[in-house]
Please model this.
Amino acid sequence: MSVSRVVRRDGHRYLVWWKDERGRTRNKTFRRKADADAFDSKIKLAKSAGDLAEITAGRETLAEFVSEWRTLYARQNLTPKTLLDYERYLANDILPALGHIQLRKVTPIVVQRFAAALGDANRGASVRRKILSLLQGIMERAVEWQRIRLNPVKVVKKPTAPRSLMPVPIAPSGIEAIRRNMSMRDAVLVSVLAYAGLRPGEALALTWSDIDKRTLRITKSISLGEQKGTKTGKSRVVPVRQALAVDLNKWKLKSGSPAGDQLVFPGHDGGPWKDHEYRNWRRRQFHDAVVAGGVTCRRPYELRHSYASLRFAEQVNPVVIAAETGDTLETLLRTYVHVIAELAGSSVWDGDQLISDARSGHIPVTWKPGMGQKVASSKAENPA
Model:
């Protein structure tokens, strides 16, 4: 810590030099020597009291703090896919606009202007909300680590998230229309998604030891080519329907009866699917089969809605369905409230029979209340 006199064209200044709590050299300029001496004394007192961090807190730029946040927090607590998404928002939006600003100078009005600029750039409400939520999370770490006192993003109003569209479950007739235009592997994968309700990452992480005659055990998932836990961090058990059992048995024989630790749906190199493999499969094989089948379905993930709807049609207790799908009861009821309403007062349906009829070609692909598709059945007492 020292005070030095610096001569400039417009006069002289007094510079206070010191090292912060992390050993980095800092300085601050004053017009009057008395002010410089007072600040130097404040630095010395703070150092002796162990409070030096409060003097320098928030002087690093947002970009510098993000680098620290990435090392100490993000890589330890976020999934690879989430971190990849966050890095995209940081590189494209947050750091170009705010990265050069000192942390303590990122004020609510600065954030408000940033939010307005996102709107002017025609970024959608959902994307703007995600970007601001990421920035708020980063600044919350800055508060916790005592770099700033208050989170400036908290007081800035976020765009209202668009209401999620109610899922339109695909009836077995539609699922079978998709499957008929696929290879055996892809058709079985669709069966697992639609008739067992797995998320795509969970289906791609299945090994043969996870499957027995009556149940599937979901204990893991695949993300960016790496194995991880399920979305909720909990394992669950799902019953295997008759048609799915047949599909899995055929695929196991076709695969050469692999060992229990082998993946049911291995990638091209025999290991877990890489992220680009899944994206390519979704854009090509899945999309082409959906179009050829005359079905409306944007993402493989949406197939799991068929499983939940079949279970509601069978009048299974919602608590059981929530456990099988890996959702909370609240999420399940909110997502499928329209399905529950449309099925109210109907008789109990046999899901296995619906799938069997669809595979035998008895059910054309048309709309049906509650199941996302209305289908005419050869059995008047069991419309499907």
